[in-house]
Specification:
The protein is mainly alpha-helical and 286 residues long. 58% of the residues lie in helices and 6% in strands. The protein is built from twelve helices and five strands. It has helices at residues 3-17, 27-34, 38-50, 87-99, 109-116, 120-133, 151-172, 178-186, 203-212, 215-235, 239-257, 261-274; strands at residues 54-56, 62-64, 105-107, 136-139, 143-146. It has a three-stranded antiparallel β-sheet with strand order 3-5-4. A two-stranded antiparallel sheet has the order 1-2. A hairpin with a 3-residue loop joins strand 4 (136-139) and strand 5. The longest helix is centred in the middle third of the chain and has 22 residues, at 151-172.
Length: 286
Amino acid sequence: MSLKNYIKNDLEIRLRSGQELPAPLTLESLSEHYQVSFSPVRIALAELVEEGLLQKGANRRLVRNAEQITPLKQGQSSELPEPPADMFEVITNDFVKLSLKGEPVDIREEVTARRYKISRSSLRIILNRLAGTGILDHIPRRGWRLRPFRQEDMQAFLEVRELLELKALELAKPHLKEEDLQKILNGNVIPQSAKEDVQIDNSLHEYLIEKAGNYYIKDFFQRQGRYYDILFDWEDQDRETAIETVRQHQAILTALIKKDWRAARKALSYHIRDNHPILSKIIKGK
């Protein structure tokens, strides 16, 4: 299902079943709610106006056209449609798994676009984004090559990351705000039951680097860290790993709020070095 069709179907079911609309009927509000650009929202709204479900009110704003809205017929489902898959996330996840085999892989646009049932132009946008993160390399006149995951590369990155993040913590100390730290802490929640999702807020690392105010530390993470951020986010899909990540975040943040710098430094160092149980088990080339 396209984004336009998803937005249109979602709004139509809400209108016909009398459910509350998810946001005001403006491009800005709906784009923010659906996390999309204005384009699919604009087309969806235009079609709903054309079909009579919406109309322009006296102030030129869109409103429900109550006289034209026919309720859902008996037996018709009022269940809202599932959002369409985010193809960037789908392809990223698949490519990460493929990279863990430890061998470079050539990516052919035509074959890959056909596999994911998207156009080559849409795929090319995704591939360019992935190249920007370091997952892919663009080989002139040959196409794209997937970057293989290698243990020695990750260990080397973690060693440098530890040094720079501990330095960032030292520089950031005078600029840390308790309300900021508490907000991040509140975003890291261990579920009370197996049915609940783990809530992870990874913004602590970016926060420390930003507050450190050191251009060269920030530059390293912007250029070298994006590939590993994606790998670590993928690893956190494992529930036990995610729960351990939350515990470690809580330990760091609690120490920072108490201004126990020694404990915070120790907890941050442990978190950087020892929180990759899945990636650390992957054997090079396997």
